[in-house]
Amino acid sequence: MSAKPYPPARRSETVYTLHGHVIPEPYDYLEDPGNPETTAFVTAQNACFNAYMASSQDLRDRIEATVTAIQHYAPHGGPDATR
């Protein structure tokens, strides 16, 4: 399998100041699901992932089995305050 480049993501100059510390947030625009840039990036990421996964049915089957197994657990509730 040949290596495929990941979709590019633009880096913004956005920074936040928190408790006097400047924190860069170069991918903040990707947090908005309504942003066309976000939609295009996610579509490209999904295409990259799907192209990789298409070449390995065994890996897909193992991932599906693992996810299915961890989603099936005995239900638990909170404590019953009426007792």
Automatic annotation (TrEMBL):
Pfam families: Peptidase_S9_N
Peptidase S9A N-terminal domain residues: 7-74
Transmembrane segments: none
GO CC term, one of those recorded: cytosol
InterPro entries tied to this protein: AB_hydrolase_fold (IPR029058), Pept_S9A_N (IPR023302), Prolyl_oligopep/macrocyclase (IPR051167)
Protein name: Putative prolyl oligopeptidase putativeserine peptidase clan SC family S9A
GO MF, one annotated term: serine-type endopeptidase activity
